[in-house]
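so the lab meeting is tmrw and i was supposed to have these ready like two days ago... anyway. pasting both below. for each one the top line is the aa sequence and the line under it is the structure tokens. i havent really looked at them closely yet so no promises
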Amino acid sequence: MSGIRLSKLMAERGLCSRREADRLIEQGKVLVNGQVIDRLGSRFDPTVCIALAPEIQRERSRLVTVLLNKPPGVVSNQPEKGYQEAASLITRKNFQRLEGQMQGELTLDGHLLKPVQITQTDDRTLHLVLQEGRKRQIRRMCDLVGLKVHSLVRVRIGGVGLGDLSRGRWRYLDSSEVF
């Protein structure tokens, strides 16, 4: 089979997650070069034109995406008892409007990781750029080489940077910002 799975192409273009792409494909809500595709696993050349059905586009135009600078101790998803869920921070009160590298192959839990770029910015600070992240990857990588992580700050996700967004605050994503 040649080509790339449609769900992967959709995720790479920022249309949706792979899981959501599979759901939309099964429902016949994805068009490739104007043709409805409803078969999972369909593969295409990466240059194809991918569009969502008009009703999905209308539905999405009513949705907003926000960027949250999550503070330590706040859990992104499914918090255990006693932990605050990140979604609880998305309130009007917390809204903020904004007017020598090392590379190598690394495995974690048997998964080959994509290259990680590491730059030491001073004697106590590392700057890491990941192409994909796994659960607690940075902390576990540092532990493997005897480094203790005192603070970990995410400064961007894909092409979306935090900029001046204060910890615990959120803002709407601009239509040009894509993960």
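ok protien two:
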Amino acid sequence: MKRLKNAIKYIVDWSVKDLTRTEIVKLLYLADLRFAKKNGSTLTGIDYEYYHYGPYNSNIRDCLREMNGNILLELESFTVGEGRKYFLYRSRGDDRLTAENCSLNEEEINILDHTLNEFGDMELDELLEHVYNNTEPMKKARPGEVDIIEKYVLSNV
């Protein structure tokens, strides 16, 4: 899980805004998708299932819980709409990950940077729209399906 935790921390550290857990999951998915197309495996070492409306992996939630307080700050949780609960995260700011102090290599950092530059400042609805309607695995997968990057990207590499 070290690769996943480093990717989470990097995204939260370098985001231009506080991120919801949902945004973190979708940004990781987009980074993993880009990395998998180039390298034949995901950057984080996880794959995703089509859960509710989109890609999800419970390991991300578990890592965020473990990292809360000492590595990341969970600012608050709030409920919107039909009782859906959101968690908001921010970097502690005192020890941002860089190429010099983490186990991510230059290519992985470049992909995370590219993902943040392209999608990091999108509003949640816009990000979800992109993930659900414009990424190959989500266009092909069905609810409940697992390993969607493996099935719909890596099997074609």
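from a quick look at the 2nd one: The beta strands are 19-20, 49-51, 54-56, 72-80, 84-91. The helical segments are 2-14, 21-39, 58-67, 106-119, 124-134, 136-140, 148-152. will dig more after coffe
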